[in-house]
């Protein structure tokens, strides 16, 4: 920051510089000197008068000169000169050069004069610093580089053009450049070393300017990283200007010496050592600059997060402010339209209900498939959509982005008919923090609903969507509450549209048996005894296997056995099995969020029973007749009861099969039990990601509820 630059002299009085080497005259470049004495001498030359110069455009021009003045390029009559863009060179620096031209010329003459006279390099550097006393540290070093660029550029311009330009040829003869150019092979080590030193000088200068340009609203001079950097800037300026003197001395020494002067190994080593010194300074400054930028990034992150919090607490006339803060802080076209695959702005979402689909890249295939199906069914044949969905992919910024991740992202985005963020990197870290802190995003996807004014009307509508699909529109918490008031526990609600055939059986008044589990022995015994009871009672019962939640290989194996041995009906599509259990889990989440318990909510009790069946190692069954008449049991209880059918079959004629079975099961319900309920959920203080030991993928978090008194 400028105020730190102008007041650095007093702040630096007590700072000890790194150990330095001194360049002596007569091409004997190095000698030791006391660190604190040198630092005091450097600081004594600094007396800024408050003027502030934008040095970056001037440095750009200087860099262009130094890069074009390449010793290895000699222009022949046949060579084509590279065209120069005058506008690019002069527009930014024109006004500045009018004010600095004389100073640059004076410093250039001073450098040439001191180097020609064989003066002490340290003394020459201090003289130049005194001549630049009124300028800021960044201006001192850029002006010194500009002064060197003038003489260095003139030298190589003459060298490059002497074969095609009469004026250049005459000047080259006066300076004896032809002889030098004839011996470029011998002088090449020196030229290469000078080029390396020039590169190091430019790197340090850019670093100094970057420190000055750091935004003062995010970092102050007393910030540790900034304070340490500012303490080293005078040393960096000193050694850069001293390197200018060394390079200028080398060029001056070539004039008039012709082929008689051959570069010594010691001089090349001395220049290399100086380049190493300046490079070391650059490395230190770069490290401090990284720390400063990290500090600024953290400050901006906090500011962006607080801005999001304020925006969501404020009432708006539309949703654009909210959406731009969430989606498009760095890009005018941050979204891809899933239907056209074209990039669009957030303006397409203005004053619409927007559902933010927040997930990582490990989306379950079944989850995406069902969500796409619900979305397409809702919008089929409609020009204007009732709501829009936007996918916000959350990725770990600490893990490198790979080609495999890019492929996964593109595959997922291509399968989504709604809007997607153009690239996960566009999601600001502050937004990711907000999704985790406020919306509690961990690994399970969220569907956050914003109304046309950008207000959150449901922090996660995914459970609502799984339970009721498009009927839940406009996906508000109020709508969820209203839907629950209309709902009762019945087969149609349990199965929904997953199996239309089964819904047909229910309407026809047939007996239907849903059963699950993964133990093959239990499945065989249960289906056989149920079939025998059905035959003896002369009541057809349609049996359908619905597996377990998270259907894996054991469920697939069970389905194969059921199909091969023709034990019962089953759902061939794994998506149907997955969706059946996800709906039950969603019912539990929805009821829990609204504060319902098994004591005050009969549907909650039924859902908990079904999920506890799934959490056990035993099989289970639900038998229904019509819509509301249902009985359920699990493990040995249901099988043992069915095996004793002869003892209660008389009740079937009087009461019906389901009521008779309900009564027959009562003696089997003892106080001894061991119930497990396993649900996806929050794992409290365990916030770090746990990966699978087999495949290294992040593991899902579950909560186990257990009650055992057997």
TrEMBL record:
Residue ranges that the Swiss-Prot or TrEMBL entry lists as coiled coil: none
Annotated Pfam families: SEO_C (PF14577), SEO_N (PF14576)
Domain Sieve element occlusion C-terminal: 479-709
Gene Ontology BP, a term: phloem development
InterPro entries: SEO_C, SEO_N, SEOA
Stretches assigned to the Sieve element occlusion N-terminal domain: 33-316
Record-given protein name: Mediator complex subunit 28
Species in which this protein is naturally found: Musa troglodytarum
């Amino acid at each position: 920051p400028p105020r730190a630059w102008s007041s650095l002299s007093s702040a630096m009085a007590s700072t000890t510089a790194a150990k330095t080497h001194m360049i002596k005259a007569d091409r004997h470049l190095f000698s030791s000197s006391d660190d604190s004495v040198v630092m005091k001498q450097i600081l004594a030359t600094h007396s800024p008068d408050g003027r502030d110069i934008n040095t970056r455009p001037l440095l750009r021009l200087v860099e262009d000169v130094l890069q074009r003045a390449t010793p290895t390029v000699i222009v022949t009559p046949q060579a084509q000169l590279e065209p120069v863009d005058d506008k690019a060179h002069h527009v930014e620096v024109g006004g500045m050069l009018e004010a600095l031209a004389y100073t640059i010329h004076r410093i250039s003459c001073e450098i040439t004069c001191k180097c020609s006279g064989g003066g002490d390099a340290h003394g020459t550097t201090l003289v130049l610093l005194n001549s630049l006393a009124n300028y800021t540290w960044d201006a001192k070093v850029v002006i010194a580089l500009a002064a060197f660029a003038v003489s260095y550029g003139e030298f190589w311009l003459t060298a490059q053009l002497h074969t095609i330009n009469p004026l250049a040829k005459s000047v080259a003869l006066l300076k004896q450049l032809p002889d030098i150019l004839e011996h470029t092979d011998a002088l090449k080590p020196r030229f290469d070393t000078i080029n390396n030193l020039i590169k190091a000088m430019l790197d340090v200068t850019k670093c100094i300017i970057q420190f000055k340009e750091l935004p003062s609203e995010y970092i102050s001079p007393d910030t540790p990283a900034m304070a340490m950097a500012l303490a080293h800037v005078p040393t960096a300026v000193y050694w850069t200007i001293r390197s200018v003197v060394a390079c200028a001395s080398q060029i001056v020494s070539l004039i008039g010496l012709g082929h008689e002067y051959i570069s010594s190994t010691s001089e090349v080593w001395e220049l290399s050592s100086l380049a190493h010194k300046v490079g070391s300074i650059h490395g230190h400054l770069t490290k401090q600059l990284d720390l400063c930028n990290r500090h600024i990034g953290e400050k901006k992150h906090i500011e962006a997060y607080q801005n999001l919090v304020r925006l969501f607490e404020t009432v708006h006339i539309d949703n654009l402010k909210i959406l731009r803060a969430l989606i498009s802080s760095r890009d005018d076209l941050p979204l891809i339209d899933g239907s056209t695959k074209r990039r669009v702005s957030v303006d397409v979402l203005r004053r619409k209900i927007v559902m933010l689909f927040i997930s990582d890249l490990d989306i379950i295939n079944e989850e995406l498939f069902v969500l796409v199906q619900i979305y397409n069914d809702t919008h089929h044949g409609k020009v204007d959509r009732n709501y829009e969905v936007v996918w916000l992919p959350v990725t770990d910024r600490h893990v490198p982005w790979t080609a495999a991740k890019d492929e996964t992202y593109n595959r997922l985005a291509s399968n989504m008919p709604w809007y997607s963020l153009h690239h996960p990197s566009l999601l600001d870290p502050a937004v990711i923090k907000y999704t985790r802190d406020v919306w509690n995003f961990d690994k399970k996807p969220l569907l956050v609903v914003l109304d046309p004014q950008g207000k959150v009307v449901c922090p996660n509508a995914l459970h609502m969507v799984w339970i009721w699909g498009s009927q839940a529109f406009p996906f508000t918490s109020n709508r969820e509450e209203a839907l629950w008031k209309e709902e009762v526990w019945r087969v149609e609600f349990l199965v929904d549209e997953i199996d239309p055939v089964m819904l047909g059986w229910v309407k026809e008044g047939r007996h239907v048996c849903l059963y699950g589990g993964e133990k093959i022995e239990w499945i065989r015994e249960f289906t056989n005894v149920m079939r025998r009871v059905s035959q003896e009672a002369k009541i057809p019962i349609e049996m359908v296997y619905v597996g377990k939640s998270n259907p894996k290989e054991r469920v697939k194996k069970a389905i194969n056995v059921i199909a091969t041995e023709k034990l019962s009906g089953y759902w061939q599509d794994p998506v149907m099995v997955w969706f059946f259990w996800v709906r039950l889990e969603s019912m539990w989440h929805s009821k829990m969020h609204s504060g319902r318990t098994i004591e005050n909510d009969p549907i909650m009790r039924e859902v908990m029973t079904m999920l506890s069946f799934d959490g056990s190692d035993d099989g289970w069954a639900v038998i229904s007749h019509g819509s509301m008449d249902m009985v359920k049991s699990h493990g040995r209880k249901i099988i043992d009861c069915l095996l004793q059918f002869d003892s209660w079959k008389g009740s079937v004629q009087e009461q019906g099969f389901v009521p008779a079975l309900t009564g027959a099961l009562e003696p089997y319900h003892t106080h001894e039990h061991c119930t497990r309920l396993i649900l996806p959920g929050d794992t409290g203080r365990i916030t770090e990601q746990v990966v699978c030991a087999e495949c290294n993928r992040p593991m899902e978090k579950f909560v186990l509820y257990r009650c055992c008194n057997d």
